[in-house]
Design a protein that fits this description.
The longest helix is centred in the first third of the chain and has 18 residues, at about 15-35. It is globular and about 85 Å long. The protein is about 10% helix and about 40% strand. It has about 675 residues and is mainly beta. A hairpin with a 6-residue loop joins β12 (about 280-290) and β13 (about 295-305).
Length: about 675
C-alpha cells in the first residue's frame, strides 16, 4: 500500500508541556527497565513512547458564528515489542488521549452548549399567523397552539427549550424541511436522546475527553502475539492472535475492501490516516504461505476470524466537533423525539391551505427513533474473511477477497408501532410516520485488488473493487422506509514521483490521484405527486476524486503538501494544505488547514416523509391520492435525508479549520 494520504496534525500544547514531558520521560524509563519478563530471560522489551498535541481552530459555521477551538487533544502512545519463548513475538500499542476542548470551549461542545431554539412555520396565507419562527414547545399544532391538540401529550418540563440546536443548523438553512431540536450537551449534563448507537451516543464529558478509557478497553490499540511455523518446500503458516487491525485495502481516505475493522470518524472525520482511526478488534489471523510456483513469485491464503463483540463505526456524538454527515445529531434528535416528544418544523398541512406547513408538537412514542438493535455476542454475529493473494512473475500483485460481516453503518427501518397522536390510539402495526428502529444487517462482500508498475508512465497503479450484498438504504418509496440493495464500489489510484524543477530540481515530488466509484443496484429515485424526489436519497452513481501533491525539501526535513478531494454528484470540494517540519529525528511539527467549498443546498433536498403517513386532516389534506393510504407524496426538504446526498464533504462545508500539531518521540 502506498502510504500517501496520511495527514498527521500536531502542535505544542500551550500550557503544562514541560511537566508532561518529564512525566513521559519517566514513563519511558520505567517501561524500559521494569516491564515483566514473559518467560524469556535474554530478549529485552523494545519500547517507544510518543507524545502528540493536535490543536484546531474552526471558523464561522452556517449560523455565521465563529466556532473557535474545535480540538485541543493531547495523546500519549506507547508501542511495545518483545520476543517470547518458542519463536512467538508480542506487539502492543497503548494510547490515551485527553481533549480539553469540552472545558475550554464549553459553550460549543460542553455543558453550556446549545440554548433555546425556534423552528419554522411556513404560512404565506396568514391563516395561522403567517410565516414565522416558532419556539420549541409552542407548535402551531400542539397542546398550547392555535390548533389545540391536548391529546398529543408533549410536556416541555420533560423536554424544555434549553440546551438545543436546530438539526443541521451548522451546515444548512431550514428551508422548509422537517427540522427539530437536538440536545447537544454531554450526557452527564443532558441525558435527552442519549443511547448507545454502537460505541457512541451516550458519553459523559469525561468519556468524550478521554474516549479510549471505556468498557471496551480502547486504550489497548493493539495487543497480539504472532509466530511463523516453518513447513517444508518454502511453505509456512503465520499466526497472529489478539487485538489488531487487519488491512485489506490499498487505498486512502475512503474504504473499499478495508472494512474488517470499524472506523472512528469522531477523531477527525475522514481526514486522519486510517491507521489511527481504525478500531482494533480481537481477531485470529492465519496465513498459509505457499511460496512460489511456475507462474507466481508468492502465494498466500489468509483466513481472518473477528470473534470480538460487534462494533459499529463511530459517527460522532452530537455536540462534538466531528459528527460525520451530521448523522449522530439526527440519531440523538430522533431518539429524543421518541422518548420525550418535541416540536417538528413545517409539519402539519390542513385542507384548504395548501401552502401552509405548520410547526407541530408530538408526544412521546409518536415520531422518532425507538429501538437500537445492537448485535449481541453470538457466533453467528462474528465476522469471517478469506483472502488469496499472490505476486506473478511479472510483478503484478493481486488479491481475491470474501467477507461476511455485520454492517458497521446503521440501517433505519420504519417502526410499525406507536401512538397516533391525533387519535391517541396505540397500535403495534400503525403505518409509518418518520419513526424508526435501528438495525445493523448482515452483509456479504466479494472483491479483489491489484497493483502494478506502469513503466511507460513511471507510475504505480492500484486498483480495488468490491461487490456487497445485504446493505440497506433509506427508501421513502417503500412502506418500510428502507430497501436492501447490492452495491459496487471500486477505486483506481496512480502514484507517480515526478521532477518538478521549480519545487525541487534534485528530488521528486509525489503526485498521487484516486477515483472512487459507487453504484447502487436497483436504485429507486423518482418524482412524487408534490414534486419532490422520493426513493433512495443516495446517488445511484457517484464518483469522488482525490489528488495529493507532496514535496520533499531540505534533505526531506521540510515537506509541504496539498490534498484535494471532490465529490462530483454533491459538487463539494475540500482542500487541505499542510507543511510538515522535522525539527529533529524525534520532534515533528506541522501546520495546515482544511477548507471546503459546498454546493447550492437545493440539490440535496429530498423527500422528508412528512406526507408519508395519513393522519387526516393534519398530514394529508392537500397531498393528493387516497388520504387513508400510507405512501410518500414527495414533499421535500433538507432534513432529514439531504445529508446522504451532501456526503461527508458537503455536509461539512462550514467546518473550515486551521491547525497546528506537534509529535515528539522519547
Amino acid at each position: 500500500m502506498v502510504d500517501t494520504y496520511k495527514t498527521r496534525h500536531h502542535l505544542m500544547a500551550r500550557a503544562g508541556l514541560g511537566g508532561a514531558l518529564c512525566a513521559f520521560v519517566t514513563l519511558n524509563a520505567l517501561a524500559q527497565n521494569n516491564l515483566p519478563d514473559l518467560g524469556s530471560s535474554t530478549p529485552k522489551w523494545k519500547v517507544d513512547v510518543y507524545y502528540e498535541n493536535d490543536t484546531r481552530f474552526r471558523g464561522k459555521d452556517n449560523t455565521n458564528r465563529t466556532v473557535g477551538l474545535s480540538k485541543f487533544r493531547n495523546t500519549v502512545q506507547v508501542e511495545l515489542d518483545r520476543e517470547l519463548n518458542n519463536g512467538w513475538e508480542f506487539h502492543g500499542v497503548l494510547r490515551g488521549t485527553w481533549d480539553g476542548v469540552y472545558r475550554i470551549n464549553d459553550d460549543q461542545y460542553g455543558k453550556e452548549a446549545g440554548g433555546a431554539i425556534n423552528l419554522d412555520t411556513t404560512d404565506p396565507s396568514g391563516a395561522f399567523g403567517g410565516t414565522r419562527a416558532t419556539p420549541h414547545g409552542q407548535g402551531v399544532v400542539g397542546d398550547n397552539g392555535l390548533i389545540d391538540t391536548p391529546f398529543l401529550g408533549f410536556d416541555t418540563n420533560v423536554n424544555p427549550n434549553d440546551g438545543l440546536r436546530v438539526l443541521g443548523d451548522r451546515w444548512h438553512d431550514v428551508e422548509g424541511g422537517a427540522a427539530f431540536g437536538v440536545p447537544v450537551r454531554p450526557c452527564d449534563y443532558d441525558s435527552r436522546g442519549c443511547t448507545d448507537f454502537g460505541g457512541y451516543g451516550d458519553k459523559k464529558r469525561s468519556e468524550l475527553e478521554s474516549p479510549e478509557f471505556n468498557s471496551r478497553l480502547d486504550f489497548i490499540r493493539e495487543a497480539y502475539v504472532k509466530k511463523t511455523f516453518t513447513l517444508d518446500d518454502q511453505r509456512s503458516i503465520f499466526l497472529k492472535i489478539g487485538k489488531q487491525q487487519v488491512v485489506w485495502g490499498r487505498t486512502d481516505l475512503f474504504r473499499v475492501l478495508d472494512v474488517i475493522n470499524p472506523v472512528d470518524y469522531s477523531r477527525n472525520n475522514i481526514y486522519d490516516e486510517l491507521e489511527d482511526i481504525r478500531i482494533p478488534m480481537w481477531m485470529v489471523q492465519a496465513e498459509y504461505r505457499m511460496g512460489g510456483s511456475e507462474s507466481m513469485q508468492e502465494r498466500n491464503l489468509q483466513v481472518v476470524w473477528n470473534f470480538d463483540q460487534f462494533r459499529a463505526n463511530n459517527l460522532g456524538q452530537c455536540g462534538t466537533a466531528n459528527v460525520i454527515l451530521d448523522a449522530g445529531c439526527f440519531f440523538r434528535g430522533m431518539k429524543n423525539l421518541w422518548d420525550n416528544g418535541g416540536t417538528v418544523a413545517n409539519f402539519a398541512n390542513l385542507p384548504g391551505v395548501p401552502d401552509a406547513f405548520l410547526a407541530t408538537d408530538f408526544g412521546p412514542g409518536q415520531i422518532g427513533l425507538n429501538e437500537v438493535h445492537l448485535p449481541s455476542w453470538k457466533l453467528k454475529n462474528t465476522q469471517l474473511g478469506i483472502k488469496y493473494e499472490g505476486v506473478t512473475k511479472g510483478g503484478l500483485s493481486f488479491s481475491l477477497n470474501a467477507l461476511t460481516y455485520r454492517s458497521q453503518l446503521p440501517s433505519l427501518r420504519g417502526a410499525r408501532r406507536g401512538t397516533n397522536g391525533f387519535t391517541g390510539e396505540f397500535r403495534e402495526s400503525w403505518p409509518y410516520l418518520i419513526s424508526f428502529d435501528m438495525h445493523f444487517p448482515r452483509v456479504n462482500l466479494i472483491g479483489g485488488s491489484m497493483d502494478f508498475e506502469w513503466e511507460a508512465a513511471d507510475a504505480a497503479v492500484r486498483v480495488e473493487a468490491a461487490l456487497t450484498d445485504g446493505e440497506e438504504f433509506a427508501n421513502t418509496s417503500k412502506a418500510e422506509l428502507y430497501s436492501e440493495n447490492n452495491v459496487l464500489r471500486a477505486v483506481i489510484g496512480i502514484d507517480r514521483p515526478t521532477f518538478i524543477p521549480f519545487i525541487n530540481p534534485r528530488r521528486t515530488t509525489l503526485i498521487s490521484g484516486q477515483l472512487f466509484f459507487q453504484h447502487i443496484f436497483n436504485h429507486d429515485d423518482r418524482r412524487g405527486p408534490m414534486g419532490g424526489r422520493i426513493g433512495i436519497p443516495d446517488w445511484e452513481d457517484n464518483v469522488i476524486g482525490t489528488l495529493l501533491v507532496k514535496a520533499f525539501l531540505k534533505n526531506d526535513r521540510l515537506s509541504p503538501q496539498i490534498i484535494f478531494a471532490h465529490d462530483f454528484r454533491a459538487q463539494a470540494t475540500v482542500a487541505a494544505p499542510q507543511v510538515e517540519w522535522l525539527l529533529s529525528d524525534n520532534l515533528k511539527f506541522a501546520i495546515g488547514a482544511n477548507v471546503k467549498l459546498g454546493s447550492d443546498n437545493d440539490r440535496y433536498k429530498y423527500d422528508d416523509c412528512r406526507a408519508c403517513n395519513p393522519w387526516p386532516p393534519f398530514t394529508s389534506g392537500n397531498y393528493g391520492g387516497d388520504p387513508t393510504q400510507a405512501f410518500s407524496r414527495g414533499l421535500a426538504g433538507l432534513e432529514p435525508l439531504g445529508r446522504f446526498r451532501a456526503g461527508p464533504i458537503g455536509a461539512a462545508w462550514a467546518e473550515d479549520e486551521i491547525y497546528a500539531t506537534l509529535r515528539y518521540k522519547f
